[in-house]
Amino acid sequence: ASTTGKVSSVFRTGLFNGKVAIVTGGGTGIGRAITQELLFLGCKVIIASRNEQRLASAANVIRNQIPRDSPAEIADIQCNIRKEEQVQRLISDTIKKFGKIDFLVNNGGGQFPGPASSFSLKGWNAVIETNLTGTFLCCREVYNQWMGEHGGVIINIVADFWKGFPGMSHTGAARSAVDNLTKSLSIEWANSGVRVNAVAPGTVYSETAAANYSDKGLFSRAIPSIPAKRLGTPAEISAAVCFLLSPAAAFISGETLKVDGAASLYSTAGWEIPDHKNIPAYDWETDEDERKPKPKL
Ligand code: ADE
Q: Among the atoms of ligand 1, which is closest to the Cα of residue 110?
């Protein structure tokens, strides 16, 4: 699958025939690639997002890519994942429309760049509510309304937060929390036949992401610190999601799969630290505790 141009998949045709998925944020960027690949593989997909018009027009474009003889279908349901009643309605309307829910892909989210010291409480709360609370609400509702009785697979899309997330600390905190939530739910819901995994994309270029960040050099500056020496594509995240949704991942649960070209092993998070002497050293010479050895410098 790709955001623009021809949609395809390495997975076998018909792999997800008869399956039903919800993809939050499914109309744009990575979510759109996931939606396109699921449809290509025969899945029925509900895309959900806050902006009704943008969502509906995305659904119309994507619908035209479905091959004629395919059982795949796409529908859109407007939903602000921060709102409990809207999430409850998203799940119940999906069951009404397609009769069941096999897959939930929690991809909807968002953040804005800036140093933590500049974040207002409102801005902080918005990012936590969208990325953490929204994902929790979608998980809880899909479990309580469907998967608790029937099983299913949940994928949470997180981020490359492994060394902190300087410059977007709010989303780092929220995504790291979703990583932990993924682990908790994989255990709590195992006996219902529910697998819960996460996918952690590195730097992925999409038109949506580019439009979201006014700093246009953000993407090209990232390339030197990615061992693959290129950015990731939405289709590469989608492929990992399809694998984890598929029976090939039947024994994988509670896992977070990094799809980052080894960037998280190689680099810091691209945060310049000026030379400074502002972290005072422990002062051994004036230590009054004689039991402590004095260092030989
Ligand atoms: N994508 C980004 N923010 C969202 C929200 N609040 N609800 C649904 N999708 C979103």
A: 2
